[in-house]
Write a structure and sequence with these properties.
346 residues; globular; 7-stranded mixed sheet; homodimer; Quinone Oxidoreductase, Chain A, domain 1; 6-stranded parallel sheet
């Protein structure tokens, strides 16, 4: 096969504050034919996730290197194998690949690549509930929070790709679940579809004091488990309501990712001491050796309809920057995915 | 025996900000003769500890109730049994009692009372290295931080009753130990007597940025374990230097105990996420079932001279408020203890 042309999204410059369309640049690139040990993949679905904002801050030391300005962006994608010189992968196979995304075609060595079954679930689900966000939710709940039946769980960013799975795992484990999200539509979905006990629209509360009052009313016995996606006033309210022996899984702090000046932490960290609370930050990659356990627990819940999910679908690679920016504006319901190409080329 | 008169220190009002001598009031009280199941104790040594400041904030929900303004203050004490109607306690026995302190004589039901051996260690040590502060240090190190040989440990408030034991347990476990304290004399003691690798006088650093630089230089491989006694810029610097998989034992935040306005938390809590850090607040009472394990580990280290300790001794019950206020002004070296009476009445 001759060289393959592909549209690809580059970062033009590192965003200052909230990312804007002008920070991105779509270019055409040309890929060499796959060499020995390489395969050519065609992106079907790509993912945008909040952690990518961290890769746009070259000054911050993190667990993954920052994006380069001289190469296409990358991320999780469900892709079709077009041509393969990698053992175990054949044309027509579908894979999840973490060096994919943000381009129509790319070369992969198959190193962080897993085959997925298109008959088990819609392909895009491998970027959400059956993918990295679902695994993140599962790891935070089962490896960190370890909720017991009858306990109260509070989840911020609850309508998102991670939070929505956290809520439903909490319910499956017999918890009272209090969810926070940023619109009435999200709260309705959480209460009616995801089955949480109370959904709080945080935009109804102007500060941590008001949110604390609402949370305390919804969690009269205190919060045993808090799953943190947001930071800011959510963390402060959770620390006000956390009970003795409480656990906090720190997954994200989307409220502060776009701030250019340091944002002070909550003034009530001292509650961690008096109440004997454990707070644990984590990145899903730490728990990757438990991926089979995750699939074994979540896939049946999904099949039984005990875990529901929503997607915000963006059509076409050109929409990827909008989808990404939407993460920080609360514009997406559930998992944001971009359909880059059809399931099969006709 | 007839009714026993006793001087006792009362709280006149809840302190606003830094406690002052005028917040306390010494009165004479009269104790009834001990009834069935009670004993009369005479205080020999009493303890002042930072946690007591929390009991002077009636508006804050905590693990122990606030002090009442209508009764003597209370705390840990080493006392002599004068008269006993409690099985297992006889006149002349020495005990550690947590409803003691702040008075010359008091009645006890023996419920939180343990006999101590005056031949094993000086009596005051049961308020320090062999008492609640030593147990706190041991619990934070062995039950939360779980340091491995060759790891780096950072300890704030390192010259205090808890911190100094933490440092020496860290050394006994083969760690590189970086200590922070508030004077040259304290740093000298830490380096020369307690054997820490580097002692930082935090007063040499005007903000978290400067302290971070000094800590990073002292901990070139990053901080694996952080024992928190102070809060404020210490926590921020520790979060800047903490390594992947780091652990934080949150024991105290003395820097904020006397603030009347909420003090914002550090702006870099997000580091907990990217670096997979566990932070655990605790109160020693949670680990009381391990008191024998503590004694079995620490008493031999003390006997072998591998744990050294210092005391700031105040003479006379009238000095108790000064000793307490000194905790927050950094005036004490090691454990602050008040000699309320002689070992034996002659």
């Amino acid at each position: 096969m001759s060289a393959q042309k592909s549209k690809a999204v580059f970062l033009k410059n590192y965003p200052k504050g909230m990312p804007e369309a002008g920070d991105f640049d779509t270019r055409e690139i040309e890929l060499a034919a796959p060499g020995e040990g390489e395969m050519l993949l065609r992106t079907v679905w790509m993912s945008v996730d909040p952690y990518m904002r961290g890769r746009m801050r070259p000054e911050v030391k993190s667990y993954i290197p920052p994006f380069s300005l001289d190469a296409p962006l990358e991320g999780g994608a469900v892709s079709e194998v077009v041509e393969s010189n990698v053992a175990g992968f054949a044309p027509g196979d579908y894979v999840v690949d973490f060096s994919g995304g943000w381009k129509e075609y790319y070369l992969s060595k198959g190193e962080r690549t897993q085959k997925v079954d298109p008959n088990l679930a819609p392909l895009s689900a491998y970027l959400g509930v059956l993918g990295m966000p679902g695994m993140t939710a599962w790891a935070g709940v089962t490896q960190i929070l370890k909720p017991k039946e009858g306990e109260t769980m509070f989840v911020s960013g609850a309508a998102g790709a991670v939070g929505s799975v956290v809520c439903q795992l909490g319910k499956a484990k017999g918890c009272r679940v209090i969810a926070s999200a940023g619109s009435k539509a999200k709260c309705d979905w959480l209460e009616k579809e995801a089955g949480v006990d109370v959904a709080l629209n945080y935009k109804d509360y102007k500060d941590a004091r008001e949110l604390t009052k609402a949370l305390a009313a919804a969690a009269p016995k205190g919060v045993d488990c808090y799953f943190e996606n947001v930071g800011g006033m959510h963390l402060e309210a959770a620390l006000n309501c956390i009970g003795f022996g409480g656990r906090i899984a720190l997954c994200g702090m989307i409220a502060v990712y776009n701030e250019q000046e340091p944002v002070p932490g909550p003034p009530n960290l001292v509650n961690l001491i008096g109440r004997g609370v454990m707070a644990r930050g984590f990145i899903v990659s730490e728990f990757m050796d438990k991926a089979m356990e995750f699939a074994a627990e979540v896939a049946p819940l999904l099949a039984q309809g005990k875990i529901k999910f929503q997607e915000s679908v963006y059509d076409g690679l050109d929409k990827a920057p909008d989808a990404f920016i939407g993460l920080f504006k609360g514009e997406n319901m559930g998992k944001a995915v971009i359909r880059v190409g059809p399931d099969r080329l006709s």
